[in-house]
Specification:
By secondary structure, this protein is α+β, with helices and mostly antiparallel strands. It has two domains: 8-66, no CATH class; 82-167, Arc Repressor Mutant, subunit A, CATH 1.10.10.10. It is 33% helix and 13% strand. The chain contains six helices and five strands. It has helices spanning 52-65, 82-91, 102-108, 116-124, 151-160, 166-172, and strands at 8-12, 19-24, 27-33, 100-101, 137-138. A three-stranded antiparallel sheet has the order 1-2-3, with helices on one face. It has a two-stranded parallel ribbon with strand order 4-5. The radius of gyration is 17 Å and the shape is globular.
Length: 173
């Protein structure tokens, strides 16, 4: 990424609150929760009035929230250390409607058993939540733990994918 390369943004409504999508150099670089409405709509577009990456991301996220999309097909360019990049690449392999644990991610990466905390920290730094599904990672006992967007959002995303959370299970008993 070249220094000074312009970042374009677009704010969209979603069932988990407003999301700000950010793109640079033809790739999605971040998704932020609790976005403020755009002060300057020109930041969302290029000189031709469109930003294809942002429009594709919005469309695919809308399809995801409508239950019509399970896999994202977007150019991604999250910024992070090589270790974080490895963790995020592994996150991308966790299928829709399934969960895994921090320890299982660490093992899949060939890391020692104590590395689950480092994997959790990398998850917490994930700049592309939902698309890189860190919400699908739970504690070793199946409980919802840490999520940059907050545990209620994590639970909502998992419910959208048909995964019962401990709060859902508590209602059943």
């Amino acid at each position: 990424m070249a220094p000074g390369s312009p970042t374009r943004s677009l704010v969209m409504r979603s069932p988990v609150g407003p999301l700000e999508l950010l793109a640079r150099d033809g790739a999605l670089v971040a998704i932020r929760f609790d976005a403020e409405p755009e002060a300057d709509p020109a930041t969302a577009t290029g000189p031709d009035g469109r930003n294809d990456v942002l429009e594709d991301a919005r469309r695919q996220l809308e399809e995801y929230f409508a239950g019509l999309r399970r896999v994202f097909d977007l150019p991604l360019a999250p910024t992070g250390t090589p270790f974080r990049q490895r963790v995020w690449a592994e996150l991308a392999l966790v299928p829709w409607g399934r969960t895994t644990t921090y320890g299982a991610l660490a093992a899949a990466l060939g890391l020692p058993p104590g590395a689950s905390r480092a994997v959790g920290a990398a998850n917490g730094a994930n700049p592309l939540p939902i698309v890189l599904p860190c919400h699908r990672v739970v504690g070793s006992d199946g409980t919802l733990t840490g999520y940059a967007g907050g545990l209620p959002r994590k639970a909502a995303l998992l419910r959208l994918e048909g995964v019962a959370t401990e709060a859902d299970q508590a209602v059943l008993f």
